[in-house]
Write a structure and sequence with these properties.
With 508 residues, the protein is an alpha+beta fold. It has three domains: 217 residues; 75 residues, no CATH class; 132 residues, no CATH class. 42% of the residues lie in helices and 20% in strands. Strands 1-15-3-11-12 form a five-stranded antiparallel sheet, with no helix packed on it. Strands 6-5-9-10 form a four-stranded antiparallel sheet, with helices on one face. A hairpin with a 2-residue loop joins strand 11 and strand 12. Helix 1 packs antiparallel against helix 11 and helix 8 crosses helix 9. The longest helix has 53 residues. 26% of the residues are buried.
Length: 508
């Protein structure tokens, strides 16, 4: 094989060998250029299929919001006194009006020092960093008891009011189980605040002096200045409370939280006022359901528009993908316009998309099976359908008819979408099926080229292999041309030398 260092240009023949061979190679490269354009076209197609995949996935997410009965919670709750109670309706709420009286809010068991605590040095209001005990009097202990267990707190001469609060809040029983307390020392009021984490009348806090000369339990509960331990310790206690309400004439006094769900109405109790009656109204929330359905229809129409455009746009074969050499001969703007034309019709008359459009139209219009006679079975019955003689499959909404159906028959509207053969159920499945077909055809969006095992991916790899074979073949062809022209130049040069010799001899 002749390499570039052995090539002889037209020194003897006077020919522009470089240009001649470059022009010859343009013709030889034609099959490789066609393979490049084929690969480029298939790569564009793969990207176009993946874009459709993303469109279908986005639409499927919209459909998913209508697949379950909980998505059709067609009720809203209002409170006549939002200062006393906030309300919201669950899916099982029953329309109507209910009276609520809040006699007692649920409370934690809470101890707050009865008065400001004084330090043991100068009798002034204590700071968090002040020591609890009088120096030289030794340690003291007290017992803390809650409904979760019992613990003994040891107070040393090094303990401050802040560290004592930490010990109480982190107290555990003999088995290592938390007593379920929160505790802090407030410097503004110079007092302790201790409470259980849970509410209800079963919650309690008991403080009892155990050992030592100083009664820390009394100091925490009563405040003032630390006193000597009594001969007979006193237990200082606090209890939690249940919430007590009257709802729709029924007294309920076992609530251990200020949140409760009754008759499908979620209550948040804010203020106890036995003399005030809060009226709660449960009614149809047609706007929320209407918005979901309208969003679904709008998304469907947008997708249908896009897919119809893709399968109806013809390919312009006058604009083939540009080779590198062709692209270099154009300005950037000219190349962009060419690419735009060349990419038209990438999915023209595509079978997967056509089948998807046809099937979705049928799924939208067909009667929903499994629903009893006399109930809503078709989208047209709630004001959703296509315009007369429409050929594109897009839907129109009669808003008044849809809102009327939601207000009067919310359960039937829910079944129309969510039953086993419901509109949302079958549309979701059909779109999923189309997405899988697109995955097999072009791979999932953002799939790396090396991991792409789709039909188009395999075809692109096959063309890439063919291109590599052609590139190797073209190198051989180009070297052959150079070898032939070099041999010609050598022959002409030899002939010229012989001619010169003969002329010289004749001249003598």
């Amino acid at each position: 094989m002749v390499n570039n260092t052995m090539r002889i240009t037209g020194f003897a023949s006077g020919l522009d060998t470089d240009t001649i061979i470059r022009d010859l190679m343009k013709a030889e490269r034609a099959p490789l250029d066609k393979l490049f354009q084929k690969k480029e076209w298939m790569s564009w197609q793969r990207d176009a299929y993946r874009d459709v995949n993303l469109e279908l996935s986005a639409f499927q997410k919209k459909v998913d919001k209508l697949r379950f009965s909980s998505d059709f919670n067609g009720f809203k709750a209002t409170s006549s006194n939002t200062a006393n109670a906030l309300v919201s309706a669950k899916g099982n709420a029953i329309q109507g009006s209910y009276d609520l009286k809040i006699e007692q809010l649920a409370e934690v068991a809470k101890i707050k020092s009865g008065s400001a605590i004084n330090n043991n040095v100068d009798g002034k209001a204590a700071k968090a960093t002040d020591n609890v005990l009088v120096p030289g009097q030794g340690d003291s202990t007290f017992e803390v008891k809650t409904s979760s267990g019992t613990a003994t707190i040891t107070v040393t001469e090094n303990d401050t009011f802040a560290s004592l609060a930490t010990k109480i809040g982190s107290a555990v029983d003999s088995n290592g189980k938390s007593l379920g307390l929160r505790a802090s020392f407030d410097e503004v009021t110079s007092s302790f605040v201790i409470s259980t984490k849970d509410m209800g009348k079963d919650q309690k806090i008991d403080l009892t002096h155990k050992t030592g000369t100083s009664d820390v339990a009394s100091l925490v509960f009563n405040g003032g200045t630390i006193a000597a331990a009594p001969a007979t310790p006193t237990t200082y206690s606090a209890d939690g409370k249940n919430a007590k309400i009257t709802f729709d004439g029924t007294v309920i006094d076992n609530l251990t939280s200020n949140k409760a769900t009754i008759y499908g109405v979620e209550l948040t109790l804010l203020k106890a006022d036995p003399t005030a009656t809060t009226t709660i109204n449960i009614g149809s929330d047609t706007d929320a359901i209407f918005t979901k359905i309208k969003d679904f229809v709008d998304s469907y129409n947008s997708m249908i528009d896009s897919l119809n455009s893709k399968v109806k746009t013809h390919r312009n074969r006058e604009y083939q993908p540009l080779t590198e050499e062709q692209r270099e001969s154009l300005s950037e703007k000219e190349a962009e316009k060419w690419d735009e034309k060349a990419k038209e019709g990438l999915l023209y008359n595509d079978q997967i998309i056509r089948d998807t459009l046809t099937t979705l139209r049928g799924k939208m219009y067909n009667t929903v099976s499994g629903i009893p006679d006399g109930q809503l079975k078709m989208l047209s019955e709630i004001g959703i359908g296509s315009a007369f003689m429409s050929m594109d499959g897009k839907l129109e909404i009669n808003e008044d008819k849809l809102k009327e159906a939601i207000a009067n028959n919310p359960d039937e509207v829910s079944k129309l979408f969510t039953s086993e053969d419901g509109i949302a159920t079958r549309i979701y499945k059909e779109v999923g099926s189309s997405i899988e077909k697109l995955n097999k055809k072009a791979g999932r969006p953002n799939t790396a080229t090396t991991l792409d095992i789709s039909t188009l991916g395999d075809s692109i790899k096959d063309v890439t292999t063919q291109m590599k074979t052609w590139e190797d073949k073209l190198k051989l062809i180009e070297n052959r041309y150079w070898k032939q022209f070099t041999a010609m130049e050598q022959a002409i040069s030899k002939m010229n030398a012989q001619s010169s010799s003969i002329v010289g001899m004749l001249g003598q």
